[in-house]
Amino acid sequence: MKDRVSSTKPLAPEIIERAWKEYGDRRGIVASENISANVSTNSVYRLVLSDGHEVIAKTTVYGSYVYFRQDHRIVQQWIRRLADSRYRNFLARICEQEGGNIFTTHIGDTGVVFYEKTKFYDFLPKVLNLNQVKALGREMGEFHLATTKVAPLLSKSWKSLGSDVAAFYDTLGSPSWKNEHGLEPGVEDALRTQCDQFLTNAENLGYHQFKKIPVLVDWNIGNFSVGMDGDGFKFFSRWDYDWLRVEPRMMDFYFCARVVRAEGDQDSFSYTLDPFFEPRFIEFLREYHRSFPLEEEEVLFVKEAYRVFLLNYVMRIGEHFFRPEYCRRLQREAIDTYFPALEKTDFRPLLRALRS
User: Fold this and answer.
1) Using CA atoms, how far apart are residues 266 and 108, in angstroms rounded to an integer?
2) Assigned CATH for 130-354
């Protein structure tokens, strides 16, 4: 049977074979399947081992390996600290070596990590009904609450939103970056204004006093599974740590808004702010607030979380998270549409979710 599997399915790319050998597992890789998303620049493979077990391999060519390794160490600690909560099996586990240390490596410019294959249960439909919207609010609130309780016990992250924005501000002065991105005259100044506004507004709202927890940012419905529970659901499993940050919990809200919007989670996507102002997101926020109360300043920070998402993940490093055809479109839309709309929008109407 093993011979037949290995003869009909391709073996893993050489870099994964090398990383697996370095990992030190005696089992061999007999087959692999590329299960990468068609949007991300990372590569993900399902590996079949010689004893029939499966693991997931991910490779990335972006960013500092130090951050890559640190992020996975934080996830490992996070998983362990949630052991006494009902989320003890929610996060996909990272493969460990003897002694209990996770394994990550870099070969050339490529970082590699292996995950235990997680079990799936139910997936949310593309369009949620109202009970499912409320369930997502409750679950996200309870998950954030459980995480907030253990966050002080986790390692600190060297990354911060402020350092990202500062780096982008400086990058905007680089002629090569401007040429590569085809920025028109005046765009550089407009983007620097956005950087300044984030730093000023975030400080005024109390960013430095907000509790910082691990957040996963990207909550599209392909990244997690649930267990249906009557008219609602409970979180069952979650994978994909590409956008992990240790930041205020509100960084997770934009993708939650996209999931609960009336048109649902879409394959063809843009990053407008409209989902924040649908009645469905107000319902989500209301249920979240009942599970894990929000302060007014935290709700108002949602605007700045969205702004910094655009500055960092779309403009500054978009080419490392999106394939070129997506990246160019999103960056142009950010300049022409997203930022101008943000300047005209008051987020105080979201506060009514706290008052009802």
Assistant:
1) 36
2) 3.90.1200.10
